[in-house]
Design brief:
43% of the residues lie in helices and 10% in strands. The protein is mainly alpha-helical and 126 residues long. Strands 1-2 form a two-stranded antiparallel sheet. The protein has a two-stranded antiparallel ribbon with strand order 3-4. Helix 2 packs across helix 3. Bound molecules: zinc ion (ZN). Zinc ion (ZN) binds next to strand 2. Zinc ion binds next to strand 2.
């Protein structure tokens, strides 16, 4: 999906009019209309607001041009797995296990391995 379709989709699913969305992210209704027509894309600051409002990553808003991977453990990231800062905004560099509430979960590589091994071991994976 392209940005225009993503925004239209998120807006209609949220039951917001173009006016209401515009008000929430401090732009004009015309700006929202231009995004949805594909004439322009939101600027970085507005993308951050949209990300927070709709609870999706900026990568998703941009039509998922990048394949997000956790910079700590290497796990491919879908929106549900992305870590968050203390204020609830998404940190698209890390998964929610490696980074939570604005801090890194692990102190060193041994820590990381201990936690990962705990998650990975199961009856059919020794
Ligand atoms: Zn990770």
């Amino acid at each position: 999906m392209e940005t225009k379709d993503v925004i239209l989709d998120l807006r209609t699913k949220s039951g917001l009019s173009q006016d209401e969305l515009a008000e929430k992210v401090f732009v004009t209704r015309q700006a929202v209309s231009r995004w949805e027509n594909g004439e322009t894309v939101p600027n970085t600051e507005t993308l951050k607001l949209l990300s927070k409002l709709f609870d999706v990553s900026i990568n998703t808003l941009l039509g998922a041009p990048r394949r997000l991977v956790c910079q700590c453990c290497g796990m491919p990231l879908e929106d549900a797995l992305i870590s968050r800062e203390k204020d609830g905004s998404l940190n698209e560099d890390y998964c929610k296990w490696c980074y939570a509430d604005g801090t890194y979960t692990y102190h060193d590589m041994d820590d990381l391995i201990n936690v990962c091994v705990g998650h990975m071991t199961s009856e059919n994976f020794t």
